[in-house]
């Protein structure tokens, strides 16, 4: 006996990833395989709960706070234009097109400030004692810090990241060969900045 298999099923497309700068606009594109759009719902994951941005059905559009005047829906393809981006807009976005078919798409958006020039400083480095060189960015979240000495890349295990804005380079049992020019490069998905500092080791080498 044949059993009808056609049922309304929820299909969720693989997560896409986008990066944008604070203050700019971003176009979040809906599913590309839809020919006729009857309804669209955009949501933003805040913590563990999805909050509705807008709902569109049969030419009726409802935009929810705090997105009023910041979003525009392209009803022909379900895409969402989000303007005046804020860091709080970072998160997961879900668009559901045609509720009876439950065609969904997940998009990850990371809204970043450009990183500022790092500031470098060191503890007083003394021969045969351990010391540190610190790198800090005052603006923007740095996702990656890399260190160089005299233009040569230092291995990652020489440093560790305290936070999204500070990295610490360890100098264990400082010696004469540790003197030189140290550079710290701070970067994120939209920018990078680098600063150098000449380091000397005091005492008998």
TrEMBL record:
Pfam families: Ig_3, V-set
Domain Ig-like stretches: 114-200
Keyword terms of this UniProt record: Glycoprotein, Membrane, Signal
Localization, UniProt: Membrane
Membrane among keywords: yes
Coiled coil: none
Chief place where the protein resides: membrane
GO CC field: cell-cell junction; membrane
InterPro entries in the cross-refs: CD2/SLAM_rcpt, Ig-like_dom, Ig-like_dom_sf, Ig-like_fold, Ig_sub, Ig_V-set
Protein's UniProt keywords contain Metal-binding: no
PANTHER family attached to this UniProt entry: HEPATIC AND GLIAL CELL ADHESION MOLECULE (PTHR12080:SF59), SIGNALING LYMPHOCYTIC ACTIVATION MOLECULE (PTHR12080)
Protein name: Ig-like domain-containing protein
Source lineage: Eukaryota, Metazoa, Chordata, Craniata, Vertebrata
């Amino acid at each position: 006996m044949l059993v009808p298999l056609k049922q309304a099923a929820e299909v969720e497309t693989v997560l896409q990833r986008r990066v944008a700068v604070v203050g700019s606009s971003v176009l979040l594109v809906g599913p590309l395989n839809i020919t006729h759009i009857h309804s669209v719902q955009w949501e933003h994951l805040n913590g563990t709960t999805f909050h509705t941005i807008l709902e569109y059905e049969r030419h009726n559009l409802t935009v929810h706070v705090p997105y009023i005047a910041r979003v525009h829906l392209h009803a022909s393809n379900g895409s969402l234009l989000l303007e005046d981006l804020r860091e709080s807009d970072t998160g997961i976005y879900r668009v559901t097109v045609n509720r009876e078919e439950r065609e969904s798409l997940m998009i990850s958006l990371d809204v970043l400030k450009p990183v500022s020039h790092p500031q470098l400083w060191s503890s007083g480095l003394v021969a045969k004692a351990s010391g540190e060189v610190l790198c800090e960015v005052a603006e923007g979240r740095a996702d990656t810090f890399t260190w160089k000495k005299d233009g040569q890349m230092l291995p990652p295990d020489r440093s560790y990241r305290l936070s999204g804005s500070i990295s610490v380079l360890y100098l264990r049992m400082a010696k004469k060969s540790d003197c030189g020019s140290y550079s710290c490069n701070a970067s994120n998905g939209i920018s990078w900045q680098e600063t150098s500092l000449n380091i000397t080791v005091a005492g008998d080498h």
